[in-house]
Design a protein that fits this description.
Blueprint (H helix, E strand, L loop, with lengths): L1 H5 L1 H12 L2 H22 L6 H19 L6 H21 L5 H6 L10 H30 L6 H25 L19
Length: 196
């Protein structure tokens, strides 16, 4: 649930963008992302997460540019910036060897599983699935930007399918893999499992 809540700024942006306008959508996305970041840090006492920090910076910078930059963006152009920014956040988290799903997964499992190779591998695979979904969004935005004759519903349908697939995969994959086994370093010694 935490991973899905982290995408609330993007959902808020998409709704306001569609109903009111791109600049307003960026401002709402910035407000929602900052609120989630403050909620986790100040109210719940959790450490800030890569996705939430990146989202706040992304929407904040784009909102400032939209308000003070003086240029008007097309709706597809704004979506391309948002989707590309999200893809970059996910790819950077993987490049830093901290896949963005890792922080959410650690809130769901016991600390003894955190160093398990299977736990890490599962998070890399799930983060890669989200990266693929965001790549589909970016590709759809680029096609709509350069082929404006295409109906906008192509972008909407591809976005919905990609995000639903990522959500379903996120729920399905860990169950398929089974529970991660603690490494020998993190596993307590018992008569059945002697320390090596």
């Amino acid at each position: 649930m935490g991973t899905l809540l982290a995408f609330a700024p993007f959902i808020a942006f998409a709704l306001v963008d569609r109903l009111v306008g791109a600049t307003e959508g960026l401002i709402v996305g910035a407000i929602v992302s900052a609120a989630l970041l403050l909620r986790d840090w100040a109210v719940l006492g959790r450490s800030p997460k890569i996705l939430e920090i990146g989202t706040t910076i992304l929407f904040g910078a784009l909102a400032l540019y939209a308000v003070f930059g003086g240029s008007s963006w097309s709706i597809v152009g704004v979506r391309l910036c948002v989707d590309l920014g999200l893809l970059l956040i996910v790819l950077i988290s993987m490049a830093l060897r901290r896949p963005f799903t890792l922080q959410y997964a650690r809130e769901q499992v016991s600390a003894e599983l955190w160093s398990s190779p299977q736990f890490m591998r599962t998070n890399y695979v799930i983060t890669a699935a989200w990266a693929l979904a965001f790549f589909v969004l970016v590709a759809a935005d680029i096609v709509l930007l350069y082929v404006p004759a295409l109906p906008p519903r192509i972008g909407i349908i591809s976005t919905i399918v990609a995000l639903i697939a990522a959500v379903k995969f996120t729920a399905w994959y860990p169950e398929r893999r089974g529970p991660a086994e603690p490494t020998s370093e993190s596993r307590p010694a018992t008569p059945e499992t002697p320390e090596r």
